Amino acid sequence: MALMQIHDPAAAPRPIGIDLGTTNSLVAYVPLIGGATTIVDCDGDALVPSVVHYPSEGPTIVGKAAVGYLKEYPEDTIASVKRFMGRGADDAETRRLGTYRFAADSGPVVQFAVAGSRTVTPIEVSAEILRALKHTAEDEIGEIGGVVITVPAYFDDAQRQATKDAARVAGLQVLRLLNEPTAAALAYGLDSKQNGTFAVYDLGGGTFDITILVLDNGVFQVRSTGGDSQLGGDDMDRALAEKLLPQLGVTDARAATPGQIRAALMAARSIKHGLTDADTVEAEVELPGQASVHVRVTRTEFAELIKPLVERTGLVCRRALRDAGLRPDELDGVILVGGSTRVVAVREYVEQLFGRAPLGSIDPDQVVALGAAVHADLLAGEGDRPDVLLLDVLPLSLGVEAMGGVAEKILPRNTPIPASAAQVFTTYADNQTGFELHVLQGERELASDCRSLARFTLRGIPPLPAGMARLEVRFDVDADGLLKVSARELTTGIAQQIEVKPSYGLRDEDIERMLLDAYDHAETDVATRALQEERTEAERICVATEKALSVDAALLEPGEGAAIRTALAAVREAVRGEVANVIHVRIEELDHISKPFAGRRMDRSIARAIAGRAVNELELETAHARGIESHLGSEGETMKD
Amino acid sequence: MDPFATLGFERRYHLDKTLLDRRYRELQQALHPDKHASAPASERALTLSKAIEVNEAYRVLRDDQKRGEALLVLLGRQLTDQTADPELLMEMMELREALSDARAAADPARVARLAAEVTEKATATSRQLSEVFARMEGEVGTPQARQLTDAQTLLSRLRYYRRFQDEVAQFEDQALA
Question: What's the N-to-C CA distance of chain A in angstroms?
């Protein structure tokens, strides 16, 4: 980045993309001139270690500065918090080799007990990281408009909701949660304009994703996705640390102190990094309070140690290919993403699995953040944007618990999103007025083996003989992959709307409290923020409406254009005022009056899509012949326009 | 909902899948929420519900079995989960027993052999189904009741095979966990 960015204080807020990673996090944006670029801190570093230190007194420390506390304060310094997102206090992750104290009475959400007799949830820890990234971005580009945050494609509803909650706590407006492999594909595919079918193999610090997608002239259509949200470089470190601990004089890894475990994990990680370039790594490892020990690890030994982990990714890949209805040789390329794909054994395994050398021309650490920035710019940037569309899928089946504890699928995995589905249930007892619903996510046959998202009781069913009442339960999944459930009693038409919050989720009150805590009475208050948000929203809607009026003037009924313009002027007038609520009401009025016009515009664009665009189709055919290899020449880490 | 109408296709089993994919993408270019991110609320709601309908129609039309079933329903047939075909029931009972034995023995090779056997049967059934529909769609006028019944029988056969394949997938997924 040779160009100096000069900010204009009156400039519109700029959208950003954030890769909230297990090990490192990054923020990127698309400048007015040039392609997406990551934002670096004052030392020129783009990677912010996802580490948060809670000192017994004073402010929380995030990133590089927090790394220094890992060894000395293993319990008060949280690393890899992403693995705990959306997890319950009883989750298996809390029992793996690690250094944390978990709050005994933490309710449904897992909580870390840290210095100063405080407890923090993974959402709050993640919010600290997001806030640090936000500040870095503000220093570079001024006011932040909105954010696209990436999540592993295989994240379930609870994990997605937790990520969104963390963003809210950090005071960020989330434009969209974007799946990491899709973000990577976007960064790869956009400037190279290749078409074809690709696999994105994404092995990060804590999560593994495989996504099979089709690139077709700016459309990125995900065919299938799979993964393991508890598999990554951390597990390689643990495997090596468990092997090292006995050599270091700790015979029982389970009985090791947090300090010993942290030291062993850090040594394992640095040996793992060394083995990327060397066949053998020798190191002096020192556990707290003990003399240092000389250890030697070869690449072959390490490969053998992590073999079960790597092979687990293979099973997931084969399933994703099967779901997409493809054989490995039908792929046009394999894209590697995530720091753990630097491990030699992983690269070799991927090459063997797909029968071709994988592509990795964009830095695997940066590619996801760059893709997120591009998407944020597409959603909220100004001016002409490239014609790009991401079509994603639901990663894990959604369903309910049926009689006998069996999981009944309502929306199967790999359903294109947004999606909705309805299922009708009936009562099993006479005069039954309540009906319990247990919402599940996962692929297993038994409800108890699936992820429990929510349990609730529908009330107010009219007393009828068994089997007479008919309850329609509707699942709606939005483009973020988040679920909403609603229910209706069909014989009487009694409707109940239920917002499903995952069992492990936070209530809105909790989020408000965290938000207020975070402001520390220093930053802007909530009312000012609300006004700002309404103004931004109003501005966007005015621009969109004006554009529609000029482009589709032919679709206006007599007098309709004038009425819409009057409503538009009223919105602009309200924006000049200081009352958020007035802006809100004016927006709604404009919305109401322009609704029939919007309907006509939609119908016409549907008719056009069905009629097809003959010229376009010819271009498609010729473009298909080119492969992704044409992109390999460019070595830049940022994207070109 | 008529998925054929939603995506602008004639009500036929045989359709051009390349065109289907392209049509789907064109429609989502116009309807997807990302394309209306800054639009007023009612336009967002309108296009969202249409985008969902297009997604669902695409899911049905792209899948041979679901497309066949949707077509039969549109032609006035009621589809049920049960089959009256005793031969099929016997065949499935034997296959399922073999599968549960292989699963109990945790024998992936045996499971894979059974899966291959069923896949072969499913492929043959698909081919037959395609032929029945081809004859039906090659003739002028309304399809004969007999042809519809044939298609229905083949579809229920396919459904049983697919459920078997799902069970195999379950076994493989459990190997992951």
Answer: 14
Segment A184-196 shows an average pLDDT of 80
Compute the distance between CA of residue A387 and CA of residue A81 in angstroms, rounded to an integer.
Answer: 36
A296-315 residues touching B, CB cutoff 8 A: 312, 315
Q: How many CB pairs under 8 A join A and B?
A: 128
- In terms of phi and psi (left: phi > 0; alpha: psi -120 to 50; beta: otherwise), the region of B106 is left
CA dist., res. A43 & res. A35, Å (int): 22
Alpha-carbon gap, residue A14 to A131, rounded angstroms: 16
> In this predicted model, what pLDDT tens digit does every residue of A396-439 receive, in sequence order?
999 998 888 888 889 999 999 999 998 888 877 888 887 888 88
Measured CA distances, A337 to A211, A362, A562 (Å): 11, 9, 52
* 336-395 of A, contacting B, C-beta below 8 A: 378-380, 387, 389-391
Region of poorest pLDDT, from A257-261, A273-277, A593-597, B52-56:
A257-261
Mutate: best of B20, B38, B63, partner A, most A CBs <10 A: B38
The β-bridge partners of A487 are: A473, A496
Spatial distance between the Cα atoms of A437 and A199, rounded to a whole number of angstroms = 37
Coil, helix or strand at residue A338: coil
* C-alpha R_g of chain A: 26
Tens digit of pLDDT for each residue in B137-164?
887 777 788 888 888 889 988 988 988 8
Residue range B81-128, pLDDT digits in tens: 666 678 888 888 899 999 888 888 888 888 889 989 999 999 999 999
Residues of B in contact with A387 (CB under 8 A): 29
In this predicted structure, which of A156-165, A263-272, A417-426, B72-81 has the lowest mean pLDDT? B72-81
Task: Report the percentage of chain A scoring pLDDT > 90.
Answer: 41
Please state at what angle helix B17-31 crosses helix B41-62, rounded to 10 degrees.
170
Half-sphere exposure of A582 (CA within 13 A, CB side): 10
Instruction: Please give the backbone phi and psi of residue A270, each rounded to the nearest 5 degrees, phi first.
Output: -75, -30
Catalytic residue positions of A?
19, 82, 180, 202
Q: What is the pLDDT of residues A602-611, one digit of tens each?
A: 999 888 888 8
The sign one gets for the Cα dihedral A218, A219, A223, A224 is positive
Tell me whether strands A196-203 and A174-179 are parallel, antiparallel or unpaired: unpaired
The rounded distance, in Å, linking the Cα atoms of A180 and A337 is: 9
Residue A406 parent element (H or E):
strand A406-411
pTM: 0.85
Structure tokens at A236: 């390689």
Q: What is the dihedral of CA A370, A371, A372, A378, to 10 degrees?
A: 110
- Half-sphere exposure (Cβ direction) of A74: Cα atoms closer than 13 Å: 19
ipTM above 0.85, yes or no: yes
Apex CA B24: angle with CA B18 and CA B29, to 5°?
Answer: 130
Residue A501 burial (CB count, 10 A): 19
Q: Number of H helices and number of E strands within chain A?
A: 14, 26
When CB atoms are compared, the residue of B30, B33, B59 closest to A605 is: B30
Q: Write the DSSP string, A522-562.
A: TS--HHHHHHHHHHHHHHHHHHHHHHHHHHTGGGPPTTHHH
Select the more confidently predicted residue: B81 or A59. Answer: A59
Residue B176 scores a pLDDT above 60: no
Q: What is the DSSP letter of A366?
A: T
Strands (E), A248-379: 280-285, 293-298, 333-337
Exposure string over A538-574, b if 16+ CB within 10 A, otherwise e: bbbbbebbeebbeeeeebbeeebeeebeebbebbeeb
Q: Are A469 and A491 in contact (CB under 8 A)?
A: yes
